[in-house]
Each structure stands twice: as C-alpha cells, then as structure tokens.
Amino acid sequence: MVAFFFKSAGPAERGSGYYATLSRSAGSRGGFKSLLMDEFTVYVLRSKKTGRRYIGYTFDIQKRLLEHNDGINRSTIAGIPWEVLYTEAGFKTRKSAQSREKEIKSWKGGVKLRDLLQSAGIV
Predict the structure, then answer these.
(1) Are 32 and 114 in contact (CB under 8 A)?
(2) Are strands 82-91 and 53-58 parallel, antiparallel or unpaired?
(3) pLDDT of 105 over the 80 cut
(4) SS3 for 11?
C-alpha cells in the first residue's frame, strides 16, 4: 500500500489537501487502484534526465506516470525517467482539470509556476 499527499483543487472544488491511499488491485497485473477514481488529477512531472517539466492531467496518476516512463507518450520519451513533482487532485470534471492544466501551462518557466512549486515545498 502506498500513500500520497495531494493538494486539493482549491476552494471552488474542495477544501484542504488530503491523503489518498493506493493499493494493488486483486488480480491486477501490477497496477494500482485508487480510492479517488472518480476525480481527475493535474500533475507536473520532472525529467530526471533533462530537468524538463511536463504538465498534464489524468484519472489515474500512477498509471499515467508508468505510461510516461514506458515511452507511450511520444512527447516525453526523450526525458525518461520522469518523477512526479506536484499534483492537485479533486477535479470532478475533465473540463475543470483541463482548465487548471491550461492555467499552469501558461505559467511554464515563469514566476507563477516557481511560486506554486515553492508553496508546495518543492523548489
């Protein structure tokens, strides 16, 4: 069993941050089953190879990280291996997750993104 801390999506979507527990599904082929499967997560990855960041959203963060590291996503293949740098969970709709992803991408390389990561104790 693995526990992760996720920052909530914000006051409009949720309250404060919370812990999510991921556990292996019985009969699964090594995957993880999340207790938060009805919510989307916006994430920031960092390449351990190049230091480059990648911003996206997903329904299953563990599965998505495996896809990035297995070379399934062509835009991240050159940066393998990737690590999760930051997550925001609790988005009830794809549209709300896409909006937050787009907002964070607009900050890419800027002061706001650095401030967001600093506020999470990352940078």
Answers:
(1) no
(2) unpaired
(3) yes
(4) coil
